[in-house]
Design goal:
alpha/beta; Rossmann fold; 13 strands
Length: about 375
C-alpha cells in the first residue's frame, strides 16, 4: 500500500509538472494529500466558492472532511487572481486551485488529447465534480452554425466539454471508454450550463434561443407577453432600466411521475415546486443514456435529467445554489408592476422544502 501511494504521488507530480507552469496554481503538484478526499468544481470564481461555502455553513450540503479543488483552463476569460486572493485573505484551507494548460480545439475535445492524463488523475483522486452555470456553449461543438448563441468564453467550454466527455463517454466517439466505468458511483452534478455541458459532451444538441425557436417571440417586448411559466429569464430588464428588476424568473417544474425527484429526492408534494431560472438556451436532442426527470409546465423545455447507468450523475437547468433562496434578504420584482418580494417568499414553503431535499440527495451522493 505504501509503495502504491508513493507511485501515485510521483505520477501526480510528474504529470502536472510537465503540463503546467511552475508559478501556476498547482494543487496536485504541491499540496495533494492521498489520505484526504476531494471534490472538483469547475469555474471556481469567487461567487461560486461563496455559494458552496454558504451551502456548507447553512448545513444544506454535507461533505464531511472532504475538500474542494477548483479546476480551470488557463485560457478562460475569468481573472482567477481574484479567487487566489479570496482564498488567501479568508484562510480557506479546504479550497484549492488547479490550473490546466494544453491545446484544445473543437476537433479534439471528444478524443484523447493533451488533457487526458490530467483528467484521469483528477478523476482518480476525487469523489465527484460540480459543473457550474455560465454563458452559452459554442454551437460548433454540437455541429450547428452559431446563430442565436452569445458565446463569450469558448475556451472554458472546450475544457469542460472535454472533461465531461472523458467522464461520461459520448456517441461522438463510441470507441472511448468513459472514466466512470471504473467508478460508476462517482458523482457529477451539472447546474444550468453544467447540465447543458453534460448533454453536449455526450452527443446532444441545444436550442440556441428558447423564446424565438420554441415560442416565435423575437423581441423582449414579445417575450414578456408570453405566459410567465414559459419565460426562463427576465426580459423586462431589457426594456426598462430599473435596478429592482431581477435578472431571473421563478417558475414551477413539472416533475416526471415516479421519476428521480419523487423516488430519490423524495418530493411527495402535490404542488409543483418553484425554482430560480436564468437561461435562454435548452437541451434539445438527448443521447439515449439520459432519462428526463423534469420539464417546464408546458413540456417544451427539459429542466432536469439523470444518467441511466451512473446513479449519481444528475443535471438540472435551474439554480438551487443561490443563497438568496434560503433567507429573506433584498426585494426584487419580475415586471415593473409587480410588488417587490424576496426570493425566499417567492419560492414559498414548498419551494424551500424541495430545494433542501435536493441538496440532501446530493449530499448522499457525496457521502
Amino acid at each position: 500500500m505504501k509503495v502504491k501511494r508513493i507511485f501515485v504521488q510521483f505520477l501526480l507530480i510528474f504529470s502536472f509538472f510537465i503540463s503546467t507552469p511552475v508559478f501556476a496554481q498547482n494543487f496536485f503538484n504541491t499540496d495533494y494529500d492521498p489520505e484526504k478526499s476531494y471534490i472538483l468544481m469547475t469555474n471556481p470564481t469567487v461567487e461560486n466558492i461563496e455559494r458552496i461555502r454558504y451551502l456548507l455553513d447553512k448545513r444544506l450540503l454535507f461533505v464531511g472532511e472532504t475538500e474542494f479543488i477548483g479546476i480551470y483552463f488557463y485560457a478562460e476569460r475569468y481573472d482567477y487572481s481574484q479567487t487566489i486572493r479570496y482564498i488567501r485573505d479568508n484562510n480557506l484551507e479546504k479550497f484549492h486551485l488547479q490550473r490546466l494548460t494544453g491545446t484544445l480545439t473543437i476537433d479534439n475535445i471528444f478524443e484523447p488529447n493533451d488533457f487526458t492524463n490530467n483528467f484521469d488523475i483528477m478523476f482518480s483522486q476525487s469523489e465527484g465534480i460540480f459543473l457550474f452555470g455560465g454563458p452559452d456553449i459554442q454551437p460548433e461543438a454540437y455541429g450547428e452554425t452559431r446563430t442565436l448563441s452569445e458565446v463569450t468564453d469558448p475556451n472554458r467550454h472546450l475544457m469542460e466539454l472535454s472533461f465531461a466527455f472523458h467522464l461520461l463517454g459520448s456517441n461522438k466517439n463510441l470507441n472511448f471508454t468513459p472514466f466512470l466505468e471504473r467508478n460508476p458511483k462517482y458523482f457529477v452534478i451539472g447546474i444550468c450550463l453544467g447540465m447543458q455541458t453534460m448533454n453536449v459532451a455526450t452527443g446532444g444538441t441545444m436550442v440556441q434561443d428558447i423564446p424565438s425557436e420554441l415560442y416565435s417571440a423575437n423581441t423582449p417586448q414579445e417575450i414578456v407577453q408570453l405566459d410567465r411559466d414559459d419565460i426562463h429569464r427576465n426580459y423586462w430588464q431589457e426594456i426598462f432600466d430599473n435596478p429592482q428588476l431581477m435578472p431571473y424568473n421563478f417558475h414551477p417544474l413539472r416533475l416526471e411521475i415516479d421519476g428521480f425527484f419523487q423516488k430519490e429526492v423524495r418530493w411527495k408534494g402535490n404542488i409543483s415546486p418553484k425554482v430560480l431560472s436564468s437561461h435562454h438556451q435548452a437541451v434539445e436532442n438527448l443521447n439515449d443514456c439520459w432519462e428526463v426527470t423534469a420539464r417546464s409546465m408546458d413540456g417544451k423545455v427539459i429542466e432536469g435529467f439523470r444518467h441511466k447507468k451512473y446513479p449519481n450523475v444528475i443535471g438540472i437547468q435551474f439554480h438551487p445554489e443561490v443563497p438568496s433562496l434560503y433567507e429573506r434578504k433584498g426585494e426584487y420584482k419580475f415586471s415593473p408592476r409587480d410588488v417587490p418580494q424576496n426570493f425566499y417568499d417567492i419560492v414559498g414553503r414548498s419551494g424551500q422544502k424541495f430545494h433542501k431535499l435536493f441538496w440532501k440527495r446530493v449530499s448522499k451522493a457525496i457521502n
